[in-house]
C-alpha cells in the first residue's frame, strides 16, 4: 500500500481485526458479483469503497425507471444502459483504484464456471431461482465461497455457503430445486421496499469483507429479517445428505 491507500483505508486499518495485513488481503482479492441491481448496487459500492482490489460485475439487464427506487448504483442518466456498465462507472467514481471487469450477457455454462473459478468469493445478488441454482452449482464445482442475499416485499435473508468447509450446506440444501418456483424472488412480480435491499446488500458486503480479510467469524446458518417488525431471526442450516448438488 502507498500513502494514499493508507489514508483512504485508515478507518479500517485502525481495527485490530483487520489491520494492515487484512487490508492487504482485501486489496489482493478478486470478487464476482452476479447481479448489479438492488442488492448488487450496495454490494459493489461497499466492496470497492472498502478496498477489494478486483471486482467483476455481471448483469445482462438494462436500467429501467422502476429500478431507480432502490438500485443506488444507477441514476436517471443511466436509463437504457447495461446495469453492469452503469455500476462499473459508479464504482470507479467512488474508488478509481478498483480494477473492474464486466459481464454484460447472462453468465451460464462454461463462461459461468470460468468467472467463478477466477474469483476468491462470489456474491449472489440475483432474484431468480434459476440463476441462484446455476451460481450455487458453479461455486460448489470450483470450491469458491458463496454469499447469498435475497430481499422481497418487507423480508430479507442472508446465508454463506463455503464448499471449503465439509460441514457447510449449499443453496440447494436450503431450497431444493424441485420445491421452488422461478418467480418467487422477483421484485417485479412481488414488490420490495427500497431500503431493504440496501440493508441486505450491506450485510452481504460485511460478510464478504470478513471472509476476505480474515476478520471475525464467518456467518453460519440462515439469517432472516422482517422489515415490518424490525426483527432478525437466525436458523441452523445443516447440510442435506440427499442434496442433488452437495450430497454425499
List its salient traits.
248 residues; alpha/beta; 8-stranded mixed beta sheet; globular
Explain how this protein is built.
An eight-stranded mixed beta sheet has the order 3-2-1-4-5-6-7-8, with helices on both faces. Strand 4, helix 7 and strand 5 form a beta-alpha-beta unit. It is globular. 45% of the residues are buried. It is an alpha/beta fold. It contains ten helices and eight strands.
- Principal-axis shape: globular
Number of strands: 8
Number of helices: 10
**Through-space gap between termini:** 44 Å
The value of Rg in angstroms is 17 Å
* Unreliable stretches covering 5 or more consecutive residues: none
Helix content: 25-40%
* Biggest sheet statistics: 8 strands, mixed
* Strand line-up of the largest beta sheet: 3-2-1-4-5-6-7-8
Quickly describe the structure.
The chain has 248 residues and is α/β, with parallel strands linked by helices.
Fold topology:
Elements: H1 3-8, H2 10-13, H3 19-27, E1 30-34, H4 40-50, E2 54-58, H5 83-94, E3 99-103, H6 109-117, E4 121-124, H7 129-142, E5 146-152, E6 155-161, H8 171-174, H9 187-190, H10 194-213, E7 222-226, E8 231-235
Parallel strand pairs: 1-2, 1-4, 2-3, 4-5
Antiparallel strand pairs: 5-6, 6-7, 7-8
Helix pairs in contact: 4-5, 4-10, 6-7
Amino acid at each position: 500500500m502507498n500513502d494514499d491507500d493508507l489514508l483512504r483505508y485508515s478507518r479500517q486499518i485502525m481495527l485490530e481485526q483487520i489491520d494492515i495485513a487484512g487490508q492487504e488481503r482485501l486489496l489482493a482479492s478478486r470478487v464476482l458479483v452476479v447481479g448489479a441491481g438492488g442488492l448488487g448496487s450496495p454490494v459493489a459500492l461497499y466492496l470497492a469503497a472498502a478496498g477489494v482490489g478486483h471486482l467483476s460485475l455481471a448483469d445482462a439487464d438494462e436500467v429501467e425507471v422502476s429500478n431507480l427506487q432502490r438500485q443506488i448504483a444507477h441514476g436517471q442518466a443511466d436509463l437504457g444502459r447495461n446495469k453492469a456498465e452503469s455500476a462499473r462507472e459508479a464504482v470507479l467514481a467512488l474508488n478509481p483504484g478498483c480494477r473492474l471487469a464486466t459481464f454484460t450477457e447472462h453468465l451460464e455454462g462454461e463462461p459461468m464456471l470460468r468467472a467463478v473459478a477466477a474469483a476468491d468469493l462470489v456474491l449472489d445478488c440475483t432474484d431468480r431461482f434459476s440463476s441462484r441454482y446455476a451460481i450455487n452449482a458453479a461455486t460448489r464445482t470450483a470450491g469458491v465461497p458463496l454469499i447469498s442475499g435475497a430481499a422481497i416485499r418487507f423480508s430479507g435473508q442472508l446465508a454463506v455457503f463455503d464448499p471449503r468447509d465439509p460441514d457447510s450446506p449449499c443453496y440447494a440444501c436450503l431450497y431444493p430445486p424441485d420445491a421452488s418456483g422461478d418467480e418467487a424472488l422477483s421484485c417485479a412480480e412481488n414488490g420490495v421496499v427500497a431500503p431493504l435491499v440496501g440493508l441486505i446488500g450491506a450485510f452481504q458486503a460485511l460478510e464478504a469483507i470478513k471472509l476476505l480479510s480474515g476478520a471475525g467469524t464467518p456467518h453460519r446458518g440462515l439469517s432472516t429479517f422482517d422489515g415490518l417488525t424490525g426483527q432478525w431471526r437466525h436458523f441452523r442450516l445443516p447440510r442435506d445428505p440427499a442434496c442433488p448438488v452437495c450430497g454425499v
